[in-house]
Amino acid sequence: MTPRATARLQLHAGFTLADAQAQVDYYAALGISHLYLSPVTRARPGSTHGYDVIDHGAVDPALGGEAALRALAQAARAQGMGLVLDIVPNHMAVHADNAWWWDVLQHGPASAHAGTFDIDWRPADPDLAGKVHLPVLGEAYGACLARGDLTLAHDDARGYVLRAHDAPYPVAPGTLAPAGTVTETLARHDPSSPCGRARLHALLQAQHYRLAWWRTAPDQINWRRFFEITELAGVRVEDPAIFDAVHSLVLRLYAEGIVEGLRIDHIDGLADPGGYAHRLREAMTRVRPDVPPYIVVEKILAEDEILPGTWRVAGTSGYDFMDQVGALLHAPQARTVLDEGWRALTGDARSPRVQWQAARHRMITRHFPAERAALVRCLLRLARLDPCTRDWSAVAIDRALSAVLVAFPVYRSYADARGRDAADAAVCQQAWRDARVLLDSRPGDPAHDLLPVLDAWLGGTPLPSDPATRALREEALRRFQQLTPPLAAKALEDTLFYRHGPLLSRNEVGAAPGALSLPPARFLALARIRGQDFPGALLATATHDHKRGEDVRARLASATEDAATWHDTLSAWTRDWHVDRPGKDAPLPADRYMLLQTLVGAWPVGLSPDDAKGVADFIGRVGAWQLKALREAKLRTDWYAPDTDYEAACAAFLQAIADTPARLAALSGQVDALAGPGMINGLSQTLLRHTVPGVPDLYQGRESWDFSLVDPDNRREVDYAALRQGLANPPAATDVHAWTDGRIKQALVQRCLAHRQSQAALYAAGELQPLAVAGTRSANILAFLRRHGPARLLVVVPLHCTQTMPCAGAKPGQVTPAGAAYWGDTRIVLDDTDRPAQAWDILHDAPVAIDGDLPVHALLREWPVAAWQWRQEG
């Protein structure tokens, strides 16, 4: 069953399933058809998001358990709603309460779950043979042992356990011979004495895991992680038995109708995403054959990349739409000004692509060297099997492979035993061509000559029949295709987007480096393709993982309409606003410039610079963002080796702004100039999300203005009391206070969703037809029709003119709808076959007469966007 509209809810101990149930009536009144829940399976104690699963077979008691989930489903069903569940097949939390992981640590390769996790039991380091490398210690192993951070302990539930920083780890059977009483056994292994320390060390050495300093993870890890998070271990759901164990609860809930659809987290992390999607679809069909399965996948699509249709899923979770609608709002002529201004400010003339490749190089050399080395070893063994390739060294293979990894332009390829499809072949052809350039080598150089060999081994040709060669080719392909996704995500979203910031509204999940804008015709073409291929795909403009809120991006997008003034203003502040700290580092111009963008973009609507508490709260939020941004950039400081002096300099720069009234006033003035234009952009993207093909997805609370920053800021508590009050008191479009408090946006969402409910077939199956616009401001209007049978929906939004439109500003008294004096003769051109005598204005909830073409000033009477509906008879 395809949802009509979803609302994403973040569950945790502070907002449980019972709390979600308490809001069912609100979401029903808003017009939502399905609540889309964050993971509900049992997670690590204290989890704030649910992605750190420790038990796939149980609903988390911290959320209320399965009874609470059933009660929520029943309450939703009573309102004509359903549930969509986010599931996490790719990984589980590394935690003592994870019974599968505990068993692996206790029994090693003999564990029943030794194959559940992606563990290399025969790594290059012979000391790790049959062991799991656990980089969990705060310091080097020897220092922790000497200081007593490692101990033998005993508890009633587990018996003898080893403890590191108070976290328990199992003792393998047969490795500890108790000497007398428990007290005596513990005393014999007391690290405070040399003999006890030696016995404890010997005991630790005998385990199926090796405790190590956390800094050893990049070089020595021998199991697949989620990205580079050593608290999350990769799960091998490609194994049918493991797939069944991971999905038993979910499939039971789906069979009973408790859950009606699934969202798959990080599908690109799996060994075989397409095979997984097929297996999941078959399993869902088997337990509920009367309903077509609804499955969406979290998949980041690169520019011009298309989700494989062979997966037979409803579509993505919406990052592609978020990127497209965001790019649409940016004026293309701003790119030159912004890029040149950034280069002048920072002195960095490298293109975004070159910087992106530099970030990827850092990732493979400093963050994923163990994964790269494991792939090189596999390729070396493969080379030794063939006389034609036996001469290649590990060094040459590493050089060639590293160039391919740096150049790879998408998250991953999907080659299988048959090789690559046409889309993958094109991607890999580009990657290998760019790798050759990066190597700067000529024929005769081993790395150069290795590239075509690697191309064949890594999916370019079908797998051979010879068992030994086939097994190594399968392993090499799997390792390669599971390495490129974390490499892509960490290099772009979590590195480059914190380094390169001409305009931060385009540094978002799903965006391409350096891509500022999207032509309206291309936006509509992509929407038509989605309607044809993936009409059930989610359409998101905010998520629990976004870098900045949808209305932060909308506000910054409006700055592109006068990019020169914007850049001149912020570059002057960057230059002139300094902190006198003799002998101390000053923040880099890039870091200051990006901070200033964040302050302007995220400044809450209506916040006065004289509101000391409000400003302090805001500065505190921005300060948390700033620290994370600096460390993610990995230039002057990072998570591995924080430069606290530089971080203090940046914090002092921010605090000096907060402590200087003139600077706060200047910021507030810039916010006032962009607040109204940003609101119009925000309403435009909201209307588009609800009217183009796809399923609109509302992230909790974002029916009001969203000026959040990266997590955890974007997961703050939702003020449902205010939202309920706003829904109960729908405003007029000219109500100034409705613009400042966000009720105008909420009203737009509610009216769009009400219309979707009344015209479900039009939205589910209606084709999209771009419309011609004529007149003096034709370049500033996007218009299209949705058609289904006799039903028509006309949608009109303004583009790249919000700074000049009369509109709502950040202060009362500024609501003046744009009229004929502004729009002049600009009009929507309708074919005779689509021109009725009368239509219904959805936003004004009133009939309107149509005589000929449609003047834009008649469409945008009070609302700055328009949606009209009619039936075309005859």
From TrEMBL:
<keyword id="KW-0413">Isomerase</keyword>
<dbReference type="InterPro" id="IPR012767">
    <property type="entry name" value="Trehalose_TreY"/>
</dbReference>
<dbReference type="Pfam" id="PF00128">
    <property type="entry name" value="Alpha-amylase"/>
</dbReference>
<protein>
    <submittedName>
        <fullName>Malto-oligosyltrehalose synthase</fullName>
        <ecNumber>5.4.99.15</ecNumber>
    </submittedName>
</protein>
<dbReference type="InterPro" id="IPR017853">
    <property type="entry name" value="GH"/>
</dbReference>
<dbReference type="InterPro" id="IPR006047">
    <property type="entry name" value="GH13_cat_dom"/>
</dbReference>
<feature type="domain" description="Glycosyl hydrolase family 13 catalytic">
    <location>
        <begin position="6"/>
        <end position="442"/>
    </location>
</feature>
<dbReference type="GO" id="GO:0047470">
    <property type="term" value="F:(1,4)-alpha-D-glucan 1-alpha-D-glucosylmutase activity"/>
</dbReference>
<dbReference type="GO" id="GO:0030980">
    <property type="term" value="P:alpha-glucan catabolic process"/>
</dbReference>
<dbReference type="GO" id="GO:0005992">
    <property type="term" value="P:trehalose biosynthetic process"/>
</dbReference>
